[in-house]
Amino acid sequence: MKQIFVKTLFVxxxxxxxxxxxxxxxxxxxxxxxxxxxxxxxxxxQDAETGNIDLIFITSxxxxxxxxxxxxxxxxxxxxxxxxxxQEIENNRIKLRLGKNDVEIKVxxxxxxxxxxxxxxxxxxxxLVLKRKRVTYTWSTFLQEYTKSVETxxxxxxxxxxxxxxxxxxxxxxxxxxxxxxxATPKNEMGYKxxxxxxxxxxxxxxxxxxxxxxxxxxxxxxxxVNRKNPDDEDIAIAxxxxxxxxxxxxxxxxxxxxxxxxxxxxxxxxxxxxxxxxPFKAATSLWRIDDDFANGNNHYFYGLSADSKGKxxxxxxxxxxxxxxxxxxxxxxxxxxxxxxxxxxxxxxxKIKTPPAQKRKPxxxxxxxxxxxxxxxxxxEFILSGQNFKVSSKGKVFQDVITLxxxxxxxxxxxxxxxxxxxxxxxxAFGAPQYILDVGDSKQNMYLILTEIDGFDxxxxxxxxxxxxxxxxxxxxxxxxxxxxGVLNKKKFxxxxxxxxxxxxxNKITFFGSTSNGKYIYFGRVRMD
Length: 530
Description:
Layout (H helix, E strand, L loop, with lengths): L21 E10 L2 H5 L1 E7 L6 E9 L3 E9 L5 E10 L4 E6 L2 E6 L6 E10 L5 E13 L4 E12 L9 E8 L6 E7 L7 E7 L5 E8 L4 E11 L9 E11 L14 E8 L5 E7 L4 E10 L2 E9 L17 E8 L4 E9 H6 L1 E2 L15 E8 L5 E11 L2 E12 L5 E7 L6 H6 L3 E4 L7 E13 L4 E12 L9 E2 L2 E2 L2 E2 L1 E2 L5 E2 L5 E7 L5 E9 L1
Parallel strand pairs: 23-27
Antiparallel strand pairs: 1-37, 2-3, 3-4, 4-5, 6-7, 8-9, 9-10, 11-12, 12-13, 13-14, 15-16, 16-17, 17-18, 19-20, 20-21, 21-22, 24-25, 25-26, 26-27, 28-29, 29-30, 30-31, 32-33, 34-36, 35-36, 36-37
């Protein structure tokens, strides 16, 4: 095993305009021992006082003992020490003396976990069916994560007090507690005017229920589960509630009037339905496919592709691959208010297209297939959405141009950046370019778009070989610089580490970290952001 990949670095400017995105301060490479090379990087420790870095490689491990090789570097990445240690594992943790401090490290080696819970399904007639399930989590040392297998047990069909069965509209399952929460509507009524929240425990008992009535048919078209960290096992989160997005439906005996098809509702609740919040709002267009959401403090953002509705219901999207706009909503879950909802069409995007000065092509968002790679909020509460256009072939997705959309704090588009990737090999086309946005730097005037290009695939370690390109985006005028390409030192190519591609030694600096594809040499490259 080689566990680390690469890092990158160095830089030449692609343009005579001298639009430098950052300054490379130092780059160093070091040779690993054969033991560390065959093992994997478990932990990176940085001393806050000295800036020294420790790399802990696991060279051998079983349930009780662990062998390590530790490399220590100063803040300029000069090698200070290299040593081997062996310890007993207690409660999945070990303690190491790193510099002047004792550091506790969680060791990712775990016993299989078996839990029972509920699987929510819809049968061929549309009826809600609950099945007991047994979930087994087995730890993979190679993947450094759990793999999950599910065994289905007995089943039950919940009914209303009148004996009617339910049609499930949305649900989520809590793998840790075994509970399941379901939003459904009575099957025989087929009205979608009465929606019922139900919570079932792992024994299939209904332990909570709440009916919610509407004047006309409503359906859930998006769900966002709110998870909290599990203090006992952070790899299996605990669900504590959800957001459901509801919209008027064309199905049911009483449909909403055509002039109300964009009158949506956020339904927010905890697992026991003791705190249910209903927030109505008007969408800019009812034909909205919410692709994703994310939270930033008290704010929750929902976003996705949309189309001109012209009085249509949300479930009348005929061709989901042809959209003409992007709709974004910001919701404050402390005040329970929708702070803004905006809809930006293709013409507006094209009018604000920007590209790196040295780039000849001007790729644009095409209004069809688009895969999100980044959703980010900067220190000005501005929203950045970045991803890639793709087309679908007989072999699956084929990724194309990189598109980054930059919205201000009110959801108004400031710029669309069209970036032409360098790599066009089969791996780059199949996986698409991983991306990052960094909001760093002393001036607070810039952000940095990191586009990682895929150079190939290491079959032995089952890892993509990627290197970074960095561009600066101005928050003031939304301009973008040329990209700085990183990844070559002493005639060697370095690729970003999969688990530790970069870290922040100081607030205005980034250190990229990786190795050669054979894992023999590791690399540090520290960059100062302007």
